[in-house]
Amino acid sequence: MTQAKAYNRLLELALILTAAGTVGVRTDDLRDRLGYESTESGKRTLMRDLDDLRGAGLEIDNAADLGEEARYVIKPGDVRLRVEFTPAQRTALQSALAAASAAGTVEVQRRALPVDLDRVREAVRRRCVMYFDYNGKAREVDPLSWEWSGHDLVVTGVEHTTTMIKSFAVVRMENLEIGAPGSAKAAEDIDDRPGLDPITWEVDPPLVAILQCPGYADDVISMVGGEVVGDEVHVRVTNRLIFFARVVELGSRVRLVGPEELRDELRGMLMEVQ
């Protein structure tokens, strides 16, 4: 088996145990779901994989009573992954575990995050200026906080050039560099941080979208915000990905009529998934 396949199996094993919560998963179920052989050799492989995950910092116990078939439970808590995993592997596992814990579902992220999450969180904790390219522009940011949003980590901070508080999705960061501890000067007690709804985050250059929605204005405003203008709702869009997802969810109740830049981008996204 290749190293990549072995790593993917470890990741799937960790995700299955995480999704099972305190109920846990029995040995036979793990063998069936992950393809371990029903032999002593297959059992030894499973035991080695569980030991590898323990060695990476996960707490995994056998919660079955004495004499019963083993039932493995992963304990919640701070997952401190050690150096046996590369930064890319560690990042992928942390991302998947966070998404599974937050949403109650398990989905392997196909698009790898471009930076080491440990470095990002260290920058926030030690008040380091973050330098990175984002949407084609060089950014300098004093980080204030970070939080998971699905598989992605979102960093909130003060951008130097605009002096505005913005949120940056780690999946879009490139060429990350981190300044010395204490180099970030933004106050940590700033109150006007972005709200919890990601559609309000300042991720993209702002544009005003025009949505035709006769009879459905209340539905549209509840999903994307904005203000009513006749049979239309005008919405300030700063996070296009979330905006497009909610427009698609609204379906036939709404029609994006402008600007053309947003129409073209949404049309391209829809064509990619056909």
Characterise this structure.
- This protein is of the alpha+beta class.
- It folds into 3 domains: 3-103, Arc Repressor Mutant, subunit A (Orthogonal Bundle), CATH 1.10.10; 117-194; 207-272, no CATH class.
- It is 36% helix and 23% strand.
- It contains 8 helices and 12 strands.
- It has helices at residues 3-20, 27-34, 40-55, 87-103, 117-125, 217-224, 240-250, 260-272; strands at residues 25-26, 60-62, 71-74, 130-134, 137-149, 152-159, 165-169, 174-178, 207-212, 227-229, 232-237, 255-258.
- It has a 5-stranded antiparallel sheet with strand order 7-6-5-4-8.
- Strand 5 and strand 6 (152-159) form a beta hairpin.
The helix count comes to 8
Structural class: alpha+beta
Domain module count: 3
The top-level CATH class of the largest domain is Mainly Alpha
In the CATH classification, which architecture of the largest domain applies?
Answer: Orthogonal Bundle
Query: What is the N-to-C order of secondary-structure elements (H for helix, E for strand)?
Result: HEHHEEHHEEEEEEHEEHEH
Tell me the CATH topology of the largest domain.
Arc Repressor Mutant, subunit A
For the sheet with most strands, the description reads: 5 strands, antiparallel
| Outline | extended
The N- to C-terminal Cα distance equals 34 Å
Proportion of strand residues: 15-25%
Which spans have pLDDT < 50 for at least 5 consecutive residues?
A: 78-84, 101-111
Q: Which features does this protein show?
A:
single chain, 274 residues, Arc Repressor Mutant, subunit A, 3 domains, five-stranded antiparallel β-sheet, four-stranded antiparallel β-sheet
